[in-house]
Every structure is written in structure tokens, then in C-alpha cells.
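Bit of a strange request maybe. I'm writing a small parser for C-alpha cell strings and I need a real example to test against, not something I typed by hand. Could someone generate the C-alpha cells for this chain?
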Amino acid sequence: MRPLAPETLIDTDALAERIGEMADDIARDTPEDAELAVLIVLKGAFVFGADLLRRIDRRTRIGFLETHKDPERPGRTDFVLTHPFSIENSDLLIVEDILDSGVTLRQLQQRLRARRPKRLRTAVLLDKTARRTVDVPVEYIGFEIPDRWVVGFGLDDEEAYRNLPFVGWVEQSPNQGS
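Reply from user aminoacidic:
Good idea to test on real output. This should exercise your parser:
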């Protein structure tokens, strides 16, 4: 059974401060006359993406991307845009909640590069380096975290806890992978 209140790993003040710093870095690295095309990976990155984008002082277009594990092809993930979103010749920023093994993010970056953006950058809120199995370039990282099952701030445990205003952790159930 899960605890009703996960233990806090990153509080709301630390999240707000670091997201502001990341937004400043992204805005500084984006030409003033450029339109930033942002793809937020659903569902986990929606809270982080909203907070980040509200603090970036640049013209932006926002799209959403869903990931689906393919049971017929282990190790392969399908990526689906939720609506048409132009990528070619764009200044593209991927917004992701957590980077662990790096496999899925690397696949996503490769597929998006094939659509020929002018530039591709990635922002992740949480970096779980202990789980990394492949190298993947990420320009903006919020926090490095230990190898724990994290929830809150958009991240879930069997669809629970997404609404928490902080990042917390819970014990991982035996039927979950990360």
C-alpha cells in the first residue's frame, strides 16, 4: 500500500527557482526574433512544461506528444503528435519530465531530427543518472535525482499523485518498471 503523502524530494520553492533559471537559459539561447517550437511529452511533463513556458520571454508554438510502448516490438516506442505540428526548419525544444535510461529520449530525438528542425534542444526536469544506459544530449536539466520512484508535479504512480505541487518519492510496487 502506498503512503497517502509521499516524502518530499524537491519542494515547490526549489522547483520554481530552478524552472525560472532554466527558462532564462532557454530564452538567452534563443534568438530574439526566433519563434520557439515546443513539444511537451505527455503526460508527465505537462506541469513542468506549463511552468517553464510561462517564464520564457519568446514567441512560442506549443505541441504535445504522446509516447506508446509497443508490446510487439520490445525496446521500441511510438511517438504520436496530438495535433499537426510543423517541425521542419523550426527552433525545436523537447520538454520531458524525467531522463532515466535515455533509450526513449534518444529515439525521440532521432525521429524529430529526421523531420529537419533548424535546431533541436531538450529540457528535462529530472535526471536519474544512475539508470542511464545510453548517451543522450540534454541541454537543460532541472535536478539530478537518486534512483527512486518519483511522483508529483505531473509525474504519477498508476495515475495518482500528478497533482502534487512538489516532487516526492514512494516505494516502487513490484509490478512497475521505470
